[in-house]
Design a protein that fits this description.
By secondary structure, this protein is mostly helical. It contains 18 helices and five strands. The chain has helices at about 5-20, 25-35, 50-55, 55-75, 75-85, 90-110, 110-130, 140-155, 160-165, 170-195, 225-235, 240-265, 270-300, 305-330, 340-365, 370-395, 400-425, 445-450; strands at about 205-210, 210-215, 435, 440, 460. The longest helix has about 30 residues, at about 270-300. It is globular.
Length: about 450
């Protein structure tokens, strides 16, 4: 394969996403280092005899930092998505790198809540703001989209990679300052690799000094619709609400599995640590083994690829919930949990590869950020509202986890059936597409916005 400038653009944006986009989910490794450096240690009652009780306030304070970060991560997706659509990819990605660098410096100076909130909230910017680069690879567009999901999952391992440096004597202040410098370099890289707006299908890039430059005639700029009209067009797009239901149920089942993981491993000693490591490795790196060689080519080369990967994601979600229900009711050896870990990680990979590919098809890149942000925000709100009550219900009795996880099986099947029927009826999985007079592909929300612009030519191919 001949290496071209577009490959450098893809590699650089994947590297940036792999170092930042989902870094907040690596909290388990970061909190170990924070405790060793004495974060919130001043809250501990050193005169108490019970060390665990004495530092309960420290645990609460650290949990609050994590909650702030996760809340910022989910809450930022809609404004970041709107920024991608309206300000363009260059401003959004470079700006979020600068915000993340500021958060890293705050963490270095022990402003933990502010710093982790800024760092976590900025992560989606380099993820959503780079996915349009897949348009530079029309022959493998969905494979490139899937690569960003894999990079996002790999980013959860960043803080784990710091542990050897920390154990060797590096302080968190040094690590976070170095990370901030790296993020500023990434911001400069975004300015070099990203166009002002976004790459379209048919674009080519060539090296211009240290940056990538578009090749070909400049595109005619069109007036941007109002934010209200754009959100309304996304909401009216046929298929939006079924996709929202399917995403919410799928995310809820995955979040519940993670929420009960530590509870089920508690008191298992060294074996539990090994299983925890196995789960984190599957979650972070399984995508490198199956996303590019398997999921991406299916999405790109089969007319029914989007529907096929959606079905695979649902089948695997049903599988890990069924295994969780069975293992919670039985005295299985701990190693017997590994298949459910594997299915969870694989289902997550398939789901997000499908989700982003389908969003591009359904909404087009003109409204992609707004649509993904809205879907992610509502889906996350459902998870926040439902996970804790479900966990409380599951922990009430010895059969609670089995009952809740078994209940997800028919719920997943019903949500999938609803989404499948509605999305196929909307033609989201069909090969028919609409292009404007300039040859740019229009989908979903873009078509709704186009209807308000008389005289714009179109052709069906």
């Amino acid at each position: 394969m001949k290496l071209e400038t577009r490959h450098a653009v893809l590699a650089s944006t994947l590297a940036i996403s792999g170092c930042l986009s989902g870094v907040a989910f690596g909290w388990a490794a970061l909190v170990v280092m924070l405790k060793r450096e004495g974060a919130y240690e001043e809250l501990c009652d050193r005169s108490a005899d019970d060390d665990d009780g004495a530092c309960a306030a420290q645990e609460v304070a650290l949990s609050r930092v994590f909650s702030i970060g996760i809340l910022c991560l989910f809450a930022s997706r809609l404004p970041i998505g709107v920024a991608v659509d309206r300000l363009g990819s260059r401003a959004t990605t470079a700006g979020t790198c600068a915000v993340a660098a500021a958060g890293s410096l705050c963490l270095a100076e022990r402003f933990y809540g502010l710093g982790f909130g800024l760092l976590a909230g900025a992560g989606p910017g380099v993820h959503l703001g780079a996915m349009h680069v897949s348009n530079l690879f029309p022959e493998a567009k969905r494979t490139a989209l899937g690569a960003y999901s894999t990079a996002h999952q790999c980013s959860t391992f960043v803080f784990s990679l710091w542990l050897p440096l920390f154990n060797a004597g590096a302080s968190l202040r040094q690590l976070f300052r170095g990370y901030a410098a790296l993020l500023l370099v990434f911001g400069a890289g975004c300015c070099a690799a990203q166009p002002r707006s976004r790459y379209e299908l048919g674009d080519a890039v060539a090296r211009a000094g240290c940056a990538a430059a578009l090749v070909g005639a400049p595109r005619k700029a069109s007036a941007a619709p109002s934010l209200r009209d754009q959100v309304a067009a996304v909401w009216r797009t046929e298929g939006f609400r079924p996709l929202l239901v399917y995403k919410s149920v799928s995310l809820l089942s995955m979040q519940f599995f993670v929420a009960v993981l530590q509870y089920r491993l508690a008191g298992r000693g060294a074996a539990a640590s090994a299983m925890n490591l196995a789960f984190n490795v599957f979650a972070s790196f399984l995508g490198l083994l199956i996303a590019a060689p398997l999921v991406g080519p299916i999405l790109d080369r089969r007319d029914d690829g989007v529907a096929l990967i959606r079905r695979a994601a649902t089948a695997q979600a049903v599988g890990f919930n069924a295994l969780l229900a069975l293992s919670a009711r039985s005295a299985w050896p701990l190693a017997a949990e590994l298949p459910s870990y594997l299915l969870w990680a694989s289902s997550r990979i398939c789901f997000f590869a499908y989700f982003f590919a389908h969003c591009v098809k359904l909404f087009g890149f003109g409204s992609f950020g707004t649509a993904v942000g809205l879907l992610s925000l509502v889906g996350a709100a459902v998870c926040f509202a439902a996970v804790q009550p479900l966990c409380a219900l599951a922990f009430q009795s010895s059969t609670g986890i089995a009952a809740v996880s078994a209940g997800f099986v028919p719920l997943l099947i019903a949500a999938h059936a609803y989404a499948e029927r509605a999305l196929l009826r909307a033609g989201a999985d069909a090969a028919t597409r609409v292009v404007d007079a300039g040859g740019a592909e229009l989908d979903g929300a873009e078509l709704a916005l186009r209807d308000a612009e008389p005289g714009r030519g179109e052709a069906r191919v």
